[in-house]
Specification:
By secondary structure, the chain is α+β, with helices and mostly antiparallel strands. The protein contains 2 helices and 10 strands; from the N terminus they run αβαβββββββββ. The strands form 4 sheets. Strands 2, 3, 4 and 7 form a 4-stranded antiparallel sheet that branches. Strands 1-8 form a two-stranded antiparallel ribbon. It has a two-stranded antiparallel sheet with strand order 5-6. The termini are far apart.
């Protein structure tokens, strides 16, 4: 009997609070303030999706032969009418991928299905952006049960002639 070994495609890893805090704070200090100034309002800092819809999307990816998801950074056009509060703000677009081995390297190609006989990318978007759709300030409790006074990635951002902003 021949056994075919499937190569793991895992590339990420679990990270700790310090890592999350660091990358979010760095983003806010180095990118968010410029994005916000460019669009004339607070840009989005996150996009939220429910577990239910992520599981459904992943099932659809698998049913169509996909084995991964690429998260593209994007921005809604300034005249976006689908959700007017989203106009100009950045977003995350989830795009199904299929891996292919090429010359001993693995590449991940965006996955297309066919709709009405035409290729259609298998993708998901329009999560709950924050801002404008944000939960109330935390001040809740962390895993230890202790009060958490600030959001992860809390940063003081230098905003040029406009002073500083606490984000």
């Amino acid at each position: 009997m021949h056994t075919i070994e499937k190569k793991s495609l895992k590339v990420g890893k679990y990270v700790n609070n310090d890592h999350v805090d660091s990358v979010i704070r760095t983003y806010k200090q180095e990118r968010w303030v410029n994005n916000s100034n460019h669009i004339g309002k607070a840009d989005s800092l996150s996009s939220w999706y429910s577990v239910e819809e992520l599981e459904e999307f992943l099932e659809t990816v698998k049913m169509n032969g996909g084995d991964g998801v690429r998260f593209y950074f994007g921005a809604y056009p300034a005249d976006f009418t689908g959700k007017p509060d989203y106009a100009g703000r950045q977003t995350i677009v989830l795009v199904a991928t299929r891996s292919k081995e090429v010359d001993e390297n693995v590449i991940n190609k965006d996955l297309y299905t066919h709709t009405d006989g035409k290729p259609a990318i298998l993708a998901y978007n329009l999560g709950a952006l924050c801002p404008p759709i944000c939960p109330p300030p935390s001040g809740g409790s962390g895993p230890s049960g202790k009060a958490v006074p600030f959001e992860i990635g809390m940063a003081i951002v230098e905003n040029g002639d406009n002073g500083m902003t606490l984000v």
